[in-house]
Amino acid sequence: MRPLLPIDRIERHAAHHPMDHSVHFNFNSASFAPREGRLHLGDDDVILEQKVANLLHAFCRRPGQVLTKTWLMEEIWPGRVVNEDSLSVAVSKLRRVLGDRAAAPKYIRTVTGTGYIWLPETRRVVVTPEHLSSTAGSGTKRWLSSGLVGVGLLVAGVGGWWISRDRAPAPETPPIEAPDAEVGRLLEEAGERLDSEQPEILRQAIAEFREALEQDPDSAKAYLGIAEAKLELSARNGHLDIELYADETHALLDRVIELDPDNARAWLRKAELHWLADWDFQAAEHAYLRAIELDPNDPTNYLPYSEFLLTLGEFERSEEMLQQLREADPAAYRYLNMSFVYTMRGELERALAETRRLMNSESESDSYRKMLHRLALLLGDEELAFEQFIALMREKDIAEKQIAEYTELYRQSGLRALFSRLLEDRVESNIGHYQPPMAWARYAVVAERHDEAFRWLNQAVDERQPQVLLVNVDPHYLPLRNDPRFAELLDRLPQRAGDSKSSD
């Protein structure tokens, strides 16, 4: 397989899982790689829809056991209220992929009124990186990001890339090829917990990684796991508190690189810290390029780098990288990054078409809804913007009584009045506009309350909220650009943010 993007070309331009082992599950003539969501079945190599992959992962970990519907729903949709119909749909999709029939099951047997049993004898195998590189086919991976196939900083305000929600019950079969069975078990279970969005599970992962370090003080995997868990905890808060973790996480990653200088994942995380915590763009770019050089076939190295390039205002480089990623691996068309390239470049209709393509054909994601809402605002389509905004409110569990009040206000007075009310209410939830103070700045722009917009933007700089780095490239802030205070704001940001300090 050729590299996704030639490293020498990147260097000329520039002048999910941290473990070294990946778990596969083998059953019948099939092999399932949960980290990539990839099922190799006979001659077919299938990338599964996320919820279907999570369902298969749950089955593979508990073969021959009656798995209740409640347990499966908690595994696949943690922290969300879903009905049994959603589970039935996921089971039906998995059966279709496997060629299974409920009436004569070879894989999934229904236990009426209770749940399901996974029938095949299933073997859990730890695969080394060397083996992975020789069997991975196109090298397709899902971008690690809180279930989100797309962008971290730009959409969610959560600059991280994690997918599976698995809470990792104890494995039925001990992993093979581990240097020490107990340490290997701790590392594997802790590594799987990194996929969680729940802080208590991430803290449990940290405790397990530390326990592994007590038994193996030179475990690069354990140091890297602690660093990733700390960053994921920060990501749950929109990285507003990333400075609290920065010194410790830098030290952990430096230790990983000391033990394993060619660890691409450690370099990728260093890049994230340099970008979001240190605001050191030169060091961030160096670390991104090093990660790509070490693992040129991994899209999880390219996608965050494309975001980083947008922060610098280097739209053409970002687009070129995404186009070459798509040419090397057509599965990359499912990422939302190209919509942001078009948006930041002012090509709003292209961005809208790209976003609708994803919404109409990919698994549902609030990232697409956030993007559509923002584009509708920029295009002046108030009804579409409002429709998506209300849906986002419901996803954030805003009270229906409050939503009804906002709806009535919009119907009477329009979006400007609605966003003015949101600003006055000091809504804390991330309803498609990051978290405060950036959210309040964005509300103020729509409400045409520019004094308050500058107040909250400057507070975002004071608090080093990472999303403020986008103000010179995001067209949301165009109404502010002719105000002298905008140039003053840019003077407070790193030199390369938006590629220019001018407001031209």
Overview of the structural elements:
This protein is an alpha+beta fold. It has 3 domains: 7-18 and 139-302, Alpha Horseshoe (Serine Threonine Protein Phosphatase 5, Tetratricopeptide repeat); 23-124, Winged helix-like DNA-binding domain superfamily/Winged helix DNA-binding domain (Arc Repressor Mutant, subunit A, Orthogonal Bundle); 371-499. It is 55% helix and 7% strand. The strands form 2 sheets. Strands 4-3-2-1-8 form a 5-stranded antiparallel β-sheet. The longest helix has 18 residues, at 242-259. It is globular, with a radius of gyration of 23 Å.
Brief characterization of the structure:
The chain is of the alpha+beta class. Helices cover 55% and strands 7% of the residues.
Query: Termini distance?
Result: 43 Å
Strand order of the largest sheet: 4-3-2-1-8
Number of helical elements: 23
- Major sheet: size, sense and barrel closure? 5 strands, antiparallel
Features:
single chain; about 500 residues; alpha+beta; Serine Threonine Protein Phosphatase 5, Tetratricopeptide repeat; Arc Repressor Mutant, subunit A; 3 domains; 5-stranded antiparallel sheet; 3-stranded antiparallel sheet; disordered C terminus
